[in-house]
Amino acid sequence: MSPSKQVRWLKAFAIAAFVTLAIPTPGRAADRVTGYFPPFKDFSVSVRDLEAFAKDGKIPAEYANLAQQTPPAQLQQFRQSLQQRFDVSPQYLAQVVNSPLVKPLLERVGESIQTDSRQNGSKSLRIALIQSAGDKRQGLTVLNVIRRFPSRQVKLNLAEVFTIYDNLTELFKLRDTTVSTLDRLADEEAQTNNTNFANRLDLRSAGTFRWQKRSFAWRDRSRQRMVPGDLYVPQTASARPLPIIVISHGVAEDRTTYAYLAEHLASYGFAVATVEHVGGDATRFRKYFSGLAPAPQATELLQRPRDVTFFLDELQRRAQIDPSLRQIDVQQTGLVGHSLGGYTVLALAGAQIDFDRVQLLCNPNRSLNLSVLLQCRAKELPPKRYAFQDPRVKAIFAISPLNSTIFGQRGMSQIRVPVLMMGGSDDIITPAIPEQIYPFAWLRSPDKYLAILDKGTHFSTQNVAKSDSVFPVSDSFIGPEPERARMFTKALGSAFFQTHLANRSEFKPYLSAAYGKSLAPNSVSVASKSLVDTNANRPSLRLNIVSASAAESIVLMLQPETSRAPELAP
After folding, report:
1. 344 and 305 in contact (C-beta within 8 Å)?
2. Which residues are CB-contacts of 501 (< 8 A; sequence separation ≥ 6)?
3. 40 vs 307, which has greater pLDDT?
4. Which of 18, 10, 16, 20 is nearest to 73 (CA)?
5. N vs C: which end of the chain shows fewer Cβ within 10 Å?
6. From residue 192, how far is each of 183, 196, 469, 523 by CA, in Å?
7. How high is the pLDDT of residue 96?
8. CA R_g for the chain
């Protein structure tokens, strides 16, 4: 194999290692790792040589030229990836790797990481992962997984690995180009807006309303399902009806994940409910990983929107006998949803499941978009038109939603209410391009806004202590400055719902590129200066906002780029 091909092999091996262990997934021990790429000669390295390289950087003589052609930083990164330890219990990992979501992912990885006979290595990989996690001395590392792989050799199908590597490379290039373009479009929009936000209300700070919190746990007898949560009610002497905002959490989250946002919105005069979806919340996942409950079902895609509709129905019914609830106006409902909660609020706003699209893209699923694993569970549902749309919903705020496969353009184009779509440029769970940027262009509502957190991740806007998290999430997955991300979420949420739920037009200027730019470090208030990276001229996390007028420019920019990476396009 040529030196350039060897360099690509080194990079691809690092990608394979990352795919194997960076996601919380989970005979004879392997003594060699072999890469085959017909018609070239096999590329082979012993596990002993890999161990020596990982331990002290020692490189076998036959690979000295390869090492000289590889940047030192890349070699160091490769060494670290081989020995990075993940502290996960074998019981937990066994449940994860056998879950309906992760098994298809391992099958895909197994096409690249194969056995002696070049068969799919997913079963062997599953065994090696669990055994490594149970090794108290060496733990779960790439090297230990290789050692415990029940085959004499770990065979890497380099053609498949290179395909994944090249597509990921194209994805990262497309991401960077898109973020740069959004930054330019936001600059152009901001130049046409002369609003001085320094003289306006600071929406990052709490509003003037005091509120009271009350918990509820209501049973939907028609489904034999509990719908618990917390209700935040502003205290006011005015008889003015209070619009209500319902927050829907993501997979393995709960009512507390966005409690900070609920409190903030309540301080601006909205009643707010954080509904807990018991079929896929943090408690259910903890029980599942402990072996005390079965895996969450595909029917959760149906039950989540029904939870919200039931809550609104029940709130309206109870208001007739409870004077403290009568001021809440369920006919003016706003929704906030994160991740799978984003799917939930899109469905309630009118998006329809496109079963033809699901069948086309999920048989088989070849996407590198991790959220498609969850979206493809829709193929387990009876294919019919589900009536999720709730006419009481007047505006939605979707944070890192998943929708590209389950709804697609046909499903998303059914939405007519105002939509604020937020994503993170570095989100690897619901990538911004297929899950927020393209869907933003598909929306037909004239009142639509796209907010992208530059350097934001899937976890940036959450408020979950790492000790309370169901999944082990490292700082690198959370991303930089989560406090700033939550600050952006509070400010934009307040502006959006004041404008499109409370019908207060004086807040619309905040839904602009100029407002996003005003939150740059040289415009940050004294109270927020502690959030700024003092070692740079700008914070690690920035916010770009564009409105409906930018949709056409975004689509034109993406079309030629996605043609080079079809697996990544929605």
Report:
1. yes
2. 243, 245, 270, 332, 333, 334, 394, 395
3. 307
4. 10
5. N
6. 15, 12, 43, 18
7. 78
8. 25
Q: Which of 181-190, 256-265, 358-367 has the highest mean pLDDT?
A: 256-265
Beta-bridged to residue 213, according to DSSP, are 232
Q: Would you say how long the chain is, in residues?
A: 570
β-sheet bridge partners, residue 544: 452
Top mean-pLDDT range of 57-61, 129-133, 474-478: 129-133
pLDDT tens digit sequence for 262-274: 999 999 999 999 9
Closest to 412 (Cα-Cα) out of 365, 342, 471: 342
Instruction: Report pLDDT for 26.
Output: 39
Between 16 and 496, name the one with better pLDDT.
Answer: 496
Cα separation, 124 vs 133, whole angstroms: 14
Model confidence band, residue 22 (pLDDT cutoffs 50, 70, 90): very low
Positive or negative CA dihedral for 55, 56, 59, 65? positive
Q: For residue 242, what are the β-bridge partners? A: 328
- Residues with Cβ within 8 Å of residue 516, at least 6 apart in sequence: 186, 190, 451, 542, 543, 544, 545
Q: Mind listing the pLDDT tens digit for each residue in 441-467? A: 999 999 999 999 999 999 999 997 655
> CA 127, CA 140: separation in Å to the nearest integer?
12
Whole-angstrom distance, CA of residue 45 vs CA of residue 499:
62
Cα separation of 493 and 285, whole Å?
A: 29
Q: Would you state the pLDDT for residue 567? A: 53
Using N-to-C axis directions, what is the helix angle for 102-110 and 122-133, rounded to 10°?
110
Backbone angles phi, psi at 298, to 5 degrees: -65, -25
Q: Give the neighbor-by-neighbor strand order of the sheet with 542-547.
A: 210-220, 225-235, 271-275, 242-248, 328-338, 393-399, 419-424, 448-454, 542-547
Tell me if residue 296 falls in helix, strand or coil: coil
Give, as one character, the DSSP assignment of residue 367: -
CA proximity to 264, closest of 391, 447, 397: 397
> Which range, 18-22, 401-405, 527-531, has the best average confidence (pLDDT)?
401-405
Identify the CA nearest to 123 among candidates 109, 137, 133, 135: 109
pLDDT greater than 50 at residue 531: no
Measure the CA–CA gap between 355 and 71, rounded to whole angstroms.
47
What number is the average pLDDT over the span 357-367? Answer: 91
Helices (H) and strands (E) in the chain, counts: 22, 13
